[in-house]
Specification:
The complex is a heterodimer of chains A (128) and B (276). Chain A is mainly α. Chain A is built from 3 helices and 1 strand. Classes of the chains: A mainly alpha (128), B alpha+beta (276). Strand 1 of chain A pairs parallel with strand 10 of chain B.
């Protein structure tokens, strides 16, 4: 098997302390961890159908993380979006941005589950 | 453009694999298939795109709900493969007109892809982050430094001569204390980062240290990110790697170290290839 074995057990923050002869346990991956890899890494080949991911990732990552976790972030005093010119009120909105706002407002699939309904790439009608 | 049966390319694996892990479905819940090509095999799924597919696909990817779903499903396919065989992940949304185009790609670029496969075989990627734990003592809202306690105990006469600082002086003292605190914090963070990277690079085949500039903060993680790197580690060294992380955590109590993995080696297969 390709995957290395490592100890099972609770996954919590790495705790220090003298004499801790333990193996650090991996933490659950966050969406940010996955996005960072799937959107930015891996073999980068210009396929037949050219997708401009740069614009997508810059805006969408910020907005996605924002919408999913804003309450928790604010609890922790994180508020970078309030100083981000792209996200502040009155910022120039490119056409694509309006679509984003629309789908966020109407989309309760943000509290996501896997394998939701119609994933048809070509379909415009798969609103939740 | 005709795109009757466009193939979404998830990963490349050794040609010896017979079939993808049972029940694996892709970004549009399509079944995932193998396209063998000599020593390699591509893992693909047919995605349903109508005319004008490129623009439509781009639009879908700008829908954050759709994007997140696609990202998770793509990653799920890659991870399921990684648990079974050496896997070279492809970036999201690598789409070809049809299966034949993908097979052509594998044949034309077999040398580079075989190299990438060799790079990932028997290895995994591990992510390591360090977050500075906020220090309440150096809170910027704290009052400026006051006369030392020793003086207060021994110098009663001096104390009566001490005056209240004026507002301007108080402000300058506070600013100076804050600048000093920030400089110390930066220096400490850099020193810790160096220590971490030196220790882990020793145990890894390769390291990837992306710039943290412009990186959006992860709202799920408290503290300030001061270290972020990925390491490609041989399977046999994974335990030692994790042990070293724990040692570092013990030695650097001012940081919260966060380990993620094992990941498919996304960060170590950056081969940019132009399509034929």
């Amino acid at each position: 098997m390709n995957q290395p074995e490592f100890p099972t057990g609770s996954t919590g923050p790495l705790m220090g302390g003298p004499g801790t002869a333990a193996l650090a346990r991996p933490q659950p991956a966050s969406l940010a961890d996955v996005l960072e890899r799937v959107l930015d890494k891996g073999i980068v080949i210009a396929g037949d159908i050219r997708i401009n991911l740069v614009d997508v990732e810059l805006l969408t990552i910020r907005v996605r993380l924002l919408v999913a976790s804003v309450d928790r972030a604010k609890e922790m005093g994180i508020d970078w979006w309030e100083h981000d010119p792209m996200l502040s009120p009155g910022a120039n909105t490119p056409a694509g941005r309006t679509q984003l706002s629309d789908s966020i407002d109407g989309d309760d699939a943000l509290h996501q589950t896997e394998d939701e309904g119609n994933g048809d790439v070509g379909g415009d009608g798969d609103k939740r | 453009m005709t795109a009757d049966a466009p193939s979404w390319l998830y990963a490349v694996v050794p040609g010896t694999i017979n079939e993808p892990p049972a029940g694996t479905t892709g970004v549009t819940e399509e079944p995932v298939r193998l396209l063998p090509a000599g020593e390699l095999a591509a893992v693909v799924g047919t995605v349903d795109i109508e005319q004008g597919g490129a623009e439509r696909l781009s639009r879908r990817l700008q829908d954050p709900a759709w994007l997140e779903r696609a990202v998770r499903r793509h990653h799920r396919v890659v991870t399921a493969l990684f648990r079974a065989v050496p896997t070279v992940p492809f970036r999201l949304a690598t789409v070809y007109h049809d299966d034949q185009r993908v097979t052509n790609l594998l044949c034309e670029r077999s040398a580079e892809l075989l190299t990438a496969l060799a790079t990932v075989t028997g290895r995994a990627e591990w992510g390591v982050q360090g977050y500075a734990i906020p220090d309440p003592i150096s809170d910027t809202s704290a009052p400026p430094p006051s006369p030392s306690p020793a003086r207060a105990v021994t110098g009663a006469a001096n104390q009566t001569a001490t005056q209240q600082p004026r507002p301007g002086t108080e402000y300058l003292l506070r600013r100076r204390a804050e600048r000093s605190r920030q400089q110390q914090a930066r220096a400490a963070a850099q020193s810790a980062a160096q220590q971490i990277d030196t220790a882990l690079t020793t145990l890894a085949v390769a390291a990837h240290r992306p710039s943290m500039n412009g990186r959006p903060a992860d709202p799920e993680q408290p503290g300030t990110l001061v270290f972020n790197a990925s390491y490609l580690v041989d399977e046999g060294d994974a335990d030692r790697f994790q042990y070293t992380i724990q040692q570092l955590a013990d030695e650097l109590p001012q940081l919260r170290l966060r380990l993620t993995g094992p990941w498919p080696a996304y960060s170590f297969v950056e081969v940019e290839v132009e399509s034929p």
